C-alpha cells in the first residue's frame, strides 16, 4: 500500500453524500455489485442509503475514508437461523483508488472488527467469477476459496458463476 495513503473505516455521515454519489455513480463499480446498487447512482440513492444505515448499532456498514474523504464502503452482515455464526462481507471502492492495497487493508480491519463485535466464527464474501481482482484482494486478506456455484448469478443479461471465499476465526 502506498505509504502516503491514510485509510480509516468510520461511520458514514450526511456530509459524505456528494463523495458517495461521485464515486458510486460508476458503471465499473456497479457491474460487480448486486442490482440493489443502482446505476446510475443519483443523489436520492445516496440519501436513501445514508438514512438506511444511519442508526446502526453496532455499525455494520462503514465508509472507507482515504486522506480525509469517503471513497468506498465496506460492510459486515451477520446471518440468522442456522447461519447465525457466519457473516457476509460486501464492499466497493472508487475506481481511481483500485490497485493501491486499500481494499486489502479495509478487509483486514473489518474482519478484526467483525470477529471482535459479533458472535461469529466465519466471514464470507461472494465475488462474481469474472471479478478476478476482487478474488485476489480476498486472498491477500487471508480468505480461502470455498466454492464455485455454476450460473448462480444473472447480471446485465449474462450468467456468471458465484465464488465463495471465507475466513474462519482463529
Structural class: alpha+beta
Strand order of the largest sheet: 1-2-3-4-5-7-6
- Percent helix among the residues? 25-40%
Quote the distance from N terminus to C terminus.
Answer: 25 Å
Gross morphology:
globular
Order of helices and strands: EHHHEEEHEHEE
Number of separate strands? 7
Major sheet summary line: 7 strands, mixed
Question: Stretches where pLDDT falls below 50 for ≥5 residues?
Answer: none
Count of discrete alpha- or pi-helical segments spanning 4 or more residues: 5
- Fraction of residues in β-strands: 25-35%
What's the overall average pLDDT, rounded?
A: 93
In terms of quaternary structure, what is this? single chain
What does this structure look like?
- By secondary structure, the chain is α+β, with helices and mostly antiparallel strands.
- The chain is 28% helix and 33% strand.
- It has 5 helices and 7 strands; from the N terminus they run E-H-H-H-E-E-E-H-E-H-E-E.
- It has helices at 17-24, 27-30, 43-53, 102-117, 132-140; strands at residues 7-11, 61-66, 69-78, 86-93, 122-125, 144-155, 158-168.
- The chain has a 7-stranded mixed beta sheet, sandwiched between helices.
- Strand 4, helix 4 and strand 5 (122-125) form a beta-alpha-beta unit.
- Helix 1 (17-24) packs across helix 3.
- The mean pLDDT is 93.
